[in-house]
Design brief:
By secondary structure, the chain is of the alpha+beta class. Strands 13, 14, 15, 16, 17, 18, 19, 20, 21, 23 and 24 form an eleven-stranded antiparallel sheet that branches. It has a seven-stranded mixed sheet with strand order 3-4-9-8-7-11-10, with helices on both faces. Strands 2-1-5-6-12 form a five-stranded antiparallel sheet. α1 crosses α21, α13 packs antiparallel against α16 and α16 packs antiparallel against α17. The radius of gyration is 30 Å and the shape is globular.
Length: 856
């Protein structure tokens, strides 16, 4: 073809979003502006019938809600009967309500179970010492449960059936980003494979979690739960507690320990064989349909051919070893993902080959003597047991086991190792240093999204969120006690902890780009260097064996997992751990402590039935309100936007009575911030009104009135997820019995960001219009960064004289922040950049090394 003039395509706008679908979807790529691209829960609504009765097969909604309440309250049969007797005495029946005793409620549950996949028991046997040993698997059909979700019209608008490649334009190139499973590589690979078998085929991503939990107080009764989630649903649904969320779908049989055989290799293999035979039986339907596909009419009335596969195995290290049949830390190659030898786990720079399923499978299913196979498997750290997941197409167990931030980082590397090392250093410094450290911890300002601690050196709990919060505050208190001169070894540990904090922040992003993942990998290299320095400074009489800690090594696989399966929250065990508490409550309150798994399965059936019926009732009520024009959410949104107390992204709440300016100044007479208050107010109002071409009264009288606000909400766009988030800030002389004056990041007239302390927030009226204002003390006095700041990544600020406080419009507040006072240097503070992921990115320009790491 001859050359012809073609109109040149204009370059995309900065921050434009490109969505490319897998070619099997037959959907053309789209490019949209950043403002038009939304990845939020505001999805199309399902087509529902406002006259239907979603509580069926219960006779009435009242009966369902009663049964729902008794189940959620963990009432046993005598308590249910007693409650019914009390109800009959105190109320008249307005709705059909025929329950007379707990047996009536049980019969209603049994009728409801006919519409849902419920638990049943399956018997299987595994040989040991040439004798068959029988076990019982209590589970519901995973495939039937999945089909129920797929067919549900409420969930239909939220399912994603095609792989997507998402990119954001940075002005020069398209930078790929990842969040949900379908935006990652594995989903696309599976769609590519199944499109060869069936052009209409769609991937059905399954996320599996399993773990053992103590049910009884002293741990004599345990339950080994299996939880399943559907990766095609977005995280806010998939990780929720309602319809579409994760459910307990089975109980792995627990092999009773025999003291005579404990730790014998053959007995350990036997226990693993029981585990995998249970999973083989549990996943039988999944394995079948993963090869040939299953045609189903989905909730959106479209037919699809679904090919299930295991996308993620979410668990701790011990459970990963069970899934992958790895020999663990006692083996020659303890990682279930790669072939790293034991004894070099702290080497974070050397790359090792990834495991592939076929290696162990060829040995186990191949010819050769048992001794020969054992020797080969021992060399690669694997057990001579057939894996129960081998029959599932497009599933490689070594690829499916995933980095878990909770166990690997929060309660693993941080709680069990780094924090324990810090405590050891503190003990060496003596009691006065410990007291000083705890006093600083207690003085850290309170924050709505951060737990407050009076002491952290001598506490013990299992809450991962609390340990996350402790990791955020530790550096800001410890550097004031552990100095380079006082403890070179301790200071080296602080440098190591700081690098781990950066790793923890980077890996927790809910939207990852190729740049953030590259920054994480580079930071691992810096962590490795700090670890070597810390080891070199260790005492001769004490040397921690970092090479024996698998959690040191597992982080090297985190970025690969994200590129394959989506962000770390997709793989997090935290949503599943919450279900342990519900099972413990059910065990103690609703079982007779016999045949426990069968009873817990029945109770879990009721939980699932409640979630499904409740979701449909709530959806129907929303539809009826919408038809009647009574949408409360829309009304509230309209009211917020038109409120005279809304100033762009800031809303003034907890408003006080109007007072004269003179009265407010009198209240703050002992505070230098109120010096020349009227003059500061006049200057701010004048500058503000000039922008709107409004004439200002000639001067402001002291008897003019203002309205103080002691609580404000600030909406801001997260630099990580690009979604709207809200900070709740206090400016109050008494909040829960103590003064609380939060700090903020404000946009200054020069265009720079300035950290400020809130002094007062108020509204001032001009020409019948309110203006939201804030008296703040800037923390932008000149300061020289100290050597420890660069070493520990501290963002240091210094306050201006209190008399130099200024009044600014509240709309210049970007978001809230937390600052920690340096007790050694008056007026100096460090800003907690680890407060959240958005704060970490906002303060990144202040650190040249991190800017280079992020390549921004």
């Amino acid at each position: 073809m001859p050359d012809v003039d073609r109109p040149s395509q204009p370059p995309p706008e900065v921050d434009s979003i490109k969505v490319e679908y897998h070619r099997a979807a037959g959907i053309k790529p789209t490019v949209s502006s950043f403002e038009d691209f939304k990845r939020d829960p505001n999805m199309p609504k399902a087509d529902l019938d406002p006259l239907s009765k979603p509580w069926i097969p219960f006779e009435s909604r009242t009966e369902f809600e009663f049964a729902e309440f008794t189940h959620e309250a963990h009432l046993n049969k005598p308590q249910v009967t007693r409650l019914l007797e009390l109800i009959k005495k105190i109320t008249a029946q307005k709705d059909q309500f025929l329950f007379k005793n707990s047996d009536d409620v049980d019969r209603a549950w049994e009728k409801a179970k006919l519409r849902h996949p419920t638990f049943s028991a399956s018997k299987f046997s595994v040989d040991y010492n040439s004798q068959p040993h029988e076990f019982m698997l209590h589970s519901r059909s995973l495939w039937e449960w999945i089909l129920q979700q797929v067919k549900d019209p409420l969930l239909a608008p939220h399912f994603h059936w095609d792989a997507q490649r998402l990119s954001k334009y940075d002005g020069e190139t398209w930078v790929r980003f990842y969040d949900e499973p379908w935006t990652a590589t594995k989903f696309a690979q599976v769609q590519q494979e199944i499109s060869k078998l069936n052009p209409r085929g769609k991937p059905l991503a399954i996320i599996i979690w399993a773990d053992t939990s103590k049910l009884s107080t002293f741990g004599s009764q345990k339950g080994h739960f299996i939880v399943a989630r559907i990766g095609n649903l977005p995280g806010y649904i998939r990780n929720g507690a309602f319809i579409g969320g994760g459910r307990i779908v089975g109980f792995v049989p627990i092999v009773e320990e025999d003291p005579r055989d404990k730790k014998k290799p053959r007995y350990v293999n036997f226990k693993n064989a029981v585990y995998h035979e249970a999973f083989r039986l549990f996943l039988e339907d999944i394995a079948k349909w993963s090869h040939v596909g299953y045609e189903v009419l989905c909730g959106d009335e479209l037919e699809r051919v679904l090919f299930p596969y295991i996308h993620i195995v979410s668990a701790d290290y011990e459970e990963h070893c069970r899934f992958a049949l790895n020999r663990g830390l006692g083996g020659l190659s303890p990682c279930p993902v790669c072939h790293i030898p034991s004894g070099v786990l702290s080497d974070l720079k050397t790359k090792h080959d990834f495991r592939i399923e076929v290696d162990a499978r060829e040995i186990i299913e191949g010819t050769g003597s048992m001794t020969f196979k054992d020797d080969l498997l021992k060399y690669i750290g694997m057990r001579n047991v057939r894996n129960g997941l081998w029959d599932i197409a497009n599933t490689d167990i070594h690829e499916a086991v995933s980095f878990d931030r909770l166990h690997a980082y929060t309660i693993g590397l941080w709680k069990q190792h780094l924090f324990e090392e810090l405590k050891r250093i503190m003990v060496g410094l003596g009691r006065p240093a410990q007291v000083q450290f705890e006093q600083i911890v207690d003085s850290i300002p309170r924050w709505s999204k951060l737990a407050h601690f009076e002491t952290i050196l001598n506490i013990e709990f299992a809450d991962g969120n609390k340990w996350d919060d402790i990791s955020k505050i530790t550096i800001h208190a410890a550097y004031q006690v552990i100095t380079q001169q006082r403890s070179p070894q301790g200071f080296a540990l602080l440098r190591l902890i700081r690098k781990w904090v950066e790793l923890n922040m980077l890996i927790s992003f809910d939207v990852q780009t190729d740049k953030t993942l590259a920054a994480y990998d580079r930071t691992i290299g810096r962590f490795h260097d700090c670890l070597e320095v810390q080891c070199a400074k260790s005492d001769d009489d004490y040397m921690k064996d970092w090479d024996g800690i698998i959690k040191i090594h597992s982080q090297t696989h985190a970025t690969r997992d994200i590129r394959l399966k989506g962000v770390a929250s997709n793989m997090d065990t935290k949503p599943n751990e919450k279900l342990n508490g519900a099972m413990r409550n059910a065990y103690h309150r609703q079982t007779n402590f016999r045949d426990v798994e069968a009873q817990l399965g029945q109770l879990e059936d009721r939980s699932m039935i409640c979630a499904n019926i409740r979701a449909h009732i709530d959806a129907q009520e929303d539809l009826i309100r919408e038809i009647k024009g009574e949408d409360e959410e829309d009304e509230q949104l309209t009211e917020e936007k038109t409120s005279p107390w809304a100033f762009n992204q800031v809303r003034l709440r907890s408003r006080q009575r109007a007072v004269q300016i003179s009265a407010l100044v009198a209240q703050g007479s002992d505070d230098a911030a109120f010096t020349n208050f009227t003059t500061k107010l006049s200057t701010c109002i004048k500058d503000l009104l000039i922008l709107f071409y409004i004439l200002l009264p000639s001067f402001i009288h002291a008897h003019y009135q203002i309205i103080e606000s002691r609580y404000i909400t600030v909406d801001f766009e997260s630099r990580v997820t690009w979604r709207l988030e809200t900070d709740r800030l206090r400016c109050s002389p008494s909040f829960h019995g103590r003064p609380r004056y939060d700090s903020v990041i404000a946009l200054w007239e020069t265009g720079s960001m300035v950290i400020c302390k809130l002094v007062r927030i108020f509204a001032y009226q001009v020409n019948n219009k309110h203006y939201g204002l804030a008296l703040v003390q800037p923390l932008n006095a000149g300061i020289t960064r100290r050597a420890e700041d660069a070493e520990l990544g501290l963002c240091r600020v210094r306050e201006k004289d209190r008399r130099q406080s200024v009044i600014i419009p509240v709309r210049s507040i970007i978001r809230g922040t937390v600052i920690v006072e340096d007790k050694r240097h008056k007026g100096e503070y460090t800003v907690m950049d680890s407060l959240d992921e958005d704060m970490y990115l906002r303060l990144m320009p202040l650190f040249l090394d991190r800017v280079m790491e992020m390549d921004v």
